[in-house]
Amino acid sequence: MFLLKPYLGSTHARAEKYWARKVERCVTVDHLRQVMERRVPPIVREYYRGGADDEITLRDNIEAFRRERFKPRSGVQLEAVEMHTEIFGDEIDLPVIAAPVGSLRMIWPRGEEAAAKAIKQSGSICTVSNFAGTDLEEIRAASNGPCWFQLYMIGGEQVAVRSIMRARHAGYSALVLTIDTAVPGNRAHHESMGASLTIGGTLIQKLRFAPQMWRHLSWLQSYYSDGGMMEFRNVILDDGRPMPYTDIGTQLRASAVTWEHLPRIREHWGSRPIIIKGVQCVEDACLAAEHGVDAIVVSNHGGRQLDRVYPTLYILREIVPALKGSGVKVFLDGGIRSGTDAVIALAHGADAVLIGRAYAYGLGAGGETGVRKAFTILKKEIEDTMRLLGCRSIHDLQADTHLRTHPFAANRL
Ligand SMILES: Cc1cc2nc3c(=O)[nH]c(=O)nc-3n(C[C@H](O)[C@H](O)[C@H](O)COP(=O)(O)O)c2cc1C
């Protein structure tokens, strides 16, 4: 493979131009998903697309936004639309932040760096997953903009402390603690395709994937130009080596994050903001506030953990009034596929939204160009929706004013 590296590098460079042309023609995030699905083999695509069990929550997250209806004010000409917002001292160009998405290096060479660069150029914040395949320092250098670090307790407390200290020194400005992964979600569909064989299978078992790899040669060449199977570069085990790409499930089972961990995490992280991700009820939102966190993400992990939970948009509507006046920022993720969805979440009181698949699809479709395109699409959709609503600033959005409560719209899940 080493001898093939220069050849694979040049084929990847050619492929990058080819896929960039496809990306340029995309008008919606769903178009980016379609391009990504053409580029990557089904077993890889499914990791990014899929959800837990029957995927009820994955679908509901999206459906909840589709069932909302606007109340526009017409005959309004806006000179400009205010889309900027300030989060923990950083001014961002749109109220959309990149959520932590693990293993980005599987869909694009040095995927985390490509994404971080594009996210910075798009004027947003990049959240780097604990399961990144690239060193935290390199991602931060590629971004040169605001970056947050997402933490699990993989490998135990000492391993987590090492990651926290590294992220601090590398200049990550907030810590995102994900609390919804006591065990990994049951990604039944992905598993039925043979997902675990790609990691732990014998050579003979892996050969079953050969036909789909052959049909997605462009991805395969790019993947090997980047060295093939990644390792978890920022989970440094006690022997000083990064954790190899393994069965994440066993690791997660052994390392659930609990509220008791918070004081010690705070001790190591210092005074920079801490965000709790995976809040799904008012009780946990209030607990987070009592623990003095700076923000929460109302999230069900994009429908990848417990299936049949409520879509995040509806949980947001319960939590926003409960946290009013607490000073805790409320973000939402799950199901955001368009700028219109983002506008709806803001009208319901979110301070900003996070996107997972929307930018991961962009990355899988065309690397840095694809991620930039995902943000460009969302930005345009937010701006157009605001103009059509006759609303000048995202800070003026309100459910009472800009959304309908008529029974047609109230025909909710
Ligand atoms: C492929 C994939 C990998 C993910 N990896 C992580 C992760 O490492 N850490 C984490 O906290 N959340 C992870 N998430 C969840 C996202 O941060 C986010 O909550 C979710 O994608 C939001 O839903 P959306 O994809 O509908 O936008 C992942 C999501 C996807 C789709």
How would you characterize this protein structure?
The chain has one domain (5-228, 238-410): TIM Barrel, CATH 3.20.20. 48% of the residues lie in helices and 12% in strands. The chain is built from 20 helices and twelve strands. It has an eight-stranded parallel sheet. The longest helix is centred in the last third of the chain and has 33 residues, at 357-389. It starts with a helix and ends with a helix. Residues 47-48, 61, 99-102, 129-131, 150, 178, 277, 299, 301-302, 304, 333-336, 355-358, 360 line the site of flavin mononucleotide (FMN). The site of flavin mononucleotide (FMN) has 26 residues, from helix 3 and helix 18.
Name a few traits of the molecule.
eight-stranded parallel sheet, TIM Barrel, alpha/beta, single chain, two-stranded antiparallel ribbon, binds flavin mononucleotide, 413 residues
Q: List low-pLDDT spans.
A: none
> Can you list the strand order of the major beta sheet?
3-12-11-10-9-6-5-4
Ligand set = flavin mononucleotide
CATH architecture assignment: Alpha-Beta Barrel
Shape: globular
Kindly summarize this structure in a few lines.
This protein has 413 residues and is an alpha/beta fold. The chain has a single domain (5-228, 238-410), classed as Alpha-Beta Barrel (TIM Barrel), CATH 3.20.20. The protein is built from 20 helices and twelve strands.
Give a topology summary.
Elements: H1 5-24, H2 29-39, H3 42-49, H4 56-66, E1 85-87, E2 90-92, E3 96-98, H5 111-121, E4 126-128, H6 136-143, E5 147-151, H7 157-170, E6 174-178, H8 188-192, H9 195-200, H10 203-206, H11 210-215, H12 217-225, E7 231-236, E8 242-244, H13 248-253, H14 262-269, E9 274-279, H15 282-290, E10 295-298, H16 312-323, E11 329-333, H17 339-347, E12 352-355, H18 357-389, H19 399-402, H20 407-410
Parallel strand pairs: 3-12, 4-5, 5-6, 6-9, 9-10, 10-11, 11-12
Antiparallel strand pairs: 1-2, 7-8
Helix pairs in contact: 1-12, 1-18, 2-18, 5-6, 5-18, 15-16, 17-18
Bound molecules: flavin mononucleotide (FMN).
